[in-house]
Amino acid sequence: MTDHGDLYLDLLKRSLLNYVYLDNELRIIYLRNCIAGSELFDTRVLHDIRRERSDAYAEMTAGRSDGRFFGRDIRNAGYSHTMIGRARLDMLHSCLDKVVGDDIPGDFVECGVWRGGSCIFMAGYLKINPGRKSRVFVADSFEGLPPPSLAQDMGLDLSKEIYPELAVDDETVRENFRVYGLDSEVVVFVKGWFKDTLPLLQTREIALLRLDGDLYESTMDSLEALYEKVSPGGIVIIDDYAIEQCRLAVAEYFARKSCDLPQMHGVDWTGVWFRKAA
């Protein structure tokens, strides 16, 4: 028998990744290139771009699996509701299954949400698991990443002035929840810099913590404020483990606590997860 919940979550993933409308993403890039003068406009290409630009379409499709930008250009990341790719969405799904199946108490928290895709998926997951009494905390500055202020982050400037594509305001993210019919009382927005907001987060227990702050500072602020609240057996997902600054923050946090670095389980070129010891 078909599991309608699994079908819903699969369609939700495809929608968040914009799999259904990749043709239109490619059309936008094609038209942008035409305006810039790097390509000549051809109605045939615009009409049947999947076939006329088959190599580009194949690259874009592959990028939706591992979360890499088309053309390795972040300007091409702004069309879907998540940048993390299918592999990391599947990992998030699997981790949610683990904490719910094992009845790990607590809420779901994401630190660094961009357009809200991972949190929208968490809200969708809760919708088909109504017996699970958890909230989804959507924590972000909603102004992009801060300019580097610590020595560990120098050379990694992802701020709004450099990458405006990464700055998404909270009303846009709220509207994204509404588009999916997933705005509800279980979704809690937390606006501000992590160092200010996360120590005051109104949760006593966290079953799943997802970190997507890129920088050393953002990663360290998240761990310092929230790791102690992660329930035994709870799961921590780190989206940016390929970034040296992020890895350093994780290593130094556990060194400060005189703990061994947890065993990391990888899923693609950058996403990892681990389970807090019971």
Automatic annotation (TrEMBL):
E.C. number(s) listed in UniProt: 2.1.1.-
Any one GO biological process: methylation
SUPFAM superfamilies from the UniProt entry: S-adenosyl-L-methionine-dependent methyltransferases
Gene3D superfamilies: Vaccinia Virus protein VP39
Keyword entries, A-Z: Methyltransferase, Transferase
GO MF annotations, alphabetized: methyltransferase activity
Keyword Methyltransferase: yes
Methyltransferase as UniProt keyword: yes
Protein origin, superkingdom: Bacteria
InterPro entries membership: SAM-dependent_MTases_sf, TylF_MeTrfase
PANTHER family (alphabetical): MACROCIN O-METHYLTRANSFERASE
Record protein name field: TylF/MycF/NovP-related O-methyltransferase
Biological source species: Mesorhizobium cantuariense
Taxon lineage: Bacteria, Pseudomonadati, Pseudomonadota, Alphaproteobacteria, Hyphomicrobiales
